[in-house]
Amino acid sequence: MALEDLCHFRDIFQEDITTERFSINLLHFYIPEVEYLDESPIQFAFPLPTNLPFTSSQTVPLPFPMAHGTTTLAFMFQGGVLAAADTRSSCSGLVACPASQKILPIHSHLVGTTSGTSADCMLWKRILARELRLYQLRHSRRLSTRGAAKLLSHMLHPFKGTELCVAATLCGWDGGELEDECHDHEESAGTTKTQKPDLGMTVGPSQGSSFTPQDSSRKARLSGPRLFYVCSDGTRLEGMLFSVGSGSPYAYSILDQGVRWGLTVEEATSVAREAVYRATHRDAYSGNFVDVFHITSKGWTRRKREDLKEEYYREKERQRLERKTQHDILRANTSIYSQCLAMPS
Amino acid sequence: MEYLIGIQGPDFVLVAADNVAASSIIQMKHDYDKMFKLSEKILLLCVGEAGDTVQFAEYIQKNVQLYKMRNGYELSPTAAANFTRKNLADYLRSRTPYHVNLLLAGYDEAEGPGLFYMDYLSSLAKAPFAAHGYGAFLTLSILDRYYRPDLSRDDAVDLLKKCVEELSKRFILNLPSFTVRLIDKDGIHDMEKLTLSGEMSGFWFWF
To answer: Can you give the pTM of this predicted structure?
Structure first.
């Protein structure tokens, strides 16, 4: 790699990572190496079938079959970003934990929903939180959500083809901390859309800062709500609405009908709750409670966890009452009708 | 599931790609751009396995920019295509091959327009027209029948529309819209997105 030669990247990576854990080298962050997966702590007699296409890395038999059942969703609207998820952790047919937390805060203005293997998600969220905190300390500003998504995607890339499964949506609010001019080009280098690089822009902090008057508008564009989907298979997408997990098709159908930019916070919360509720109703691997997080320029706030079992009974009660009133109306109509018939003409 | 097409004229190259980013049966994004700008007059269209596309295309993109920084001039499309193919070939027999199918389209002052077809086995062919994806089976014969080397720009867009209509008629999957770009001596021009007529495809551009 040409860039690798320029940055002497390979020299750094060949040092023994475990002894250099306290190195202050900027490029030297500790991530678990892929090789650790070759040593499985529990050896079972049966090998699991691995029919993953296009992979040539060795996969290790899992100690027990892991399932990726969940429903998580996130969308942007005029009031910020809303994230919602169920709370059931399943493990091949049994509910391992009915009250797990699938939306993990990463820092005050960034929240990530997790789907896939719970342990992997939790670990990588913590690693991401650590790296973002280090970035903030080193550069005295928060890394943007786009940068965080790219960082997570690149950290997960060495594990592609292994059993690691993390599908996260990063919901954050950028901006509000651009104090210095000299940080702008780092922001632009981090947030330049990869499909259309602006070759006129400088790349990297060593280049001089030659800013045009449109920087202030770029600053305004760079702040605000952001939503990214990052998956361990390498997918990284920016969007306004994502739903991830085994229950996501059911959630998508509710969200596609109900979500608009102009929703109020209450309306958005109710659409998100409804989407998770419907998905948990149909999907066996989602259920129990629903968590809702709301991210605004002031940070994230969390709604009280709700039991969807109560929601189900409330809906049944509403339907029962509706049927009862319809039945009463029908009876009243037929009795009037029969009275009219009985009256002498 | 994904579709790329390129048509070369006497002094331009027209390329189009669909806009769907899918994950198993769900369309996660309806306005995803599969074209990567390598330089002022070179575009790389990239489809294939989920993470490999972006990783590989960004790697090529940054290295082409690095070449320009180091040497002061840009790579020609032929050189960029051969560089890309070489990287694909190097990774092909490694532990982590890149499963990507590419079209590289560019305009060079000396050589004129060029369209290069590359696939995941690192084959490279300069072609007057090319397509990737299942949609290619349906549209290559249309290109065979109607393509002429002295196509005008409007003719090329009409030919592209014929291909897209055939896809909407016979292709089992729904590809509602296509990004279209044209490269000529003045650089890369964005053209109007091709959408299926009569459908509510405009509604989905919100998300």
So the answer is: 0.74
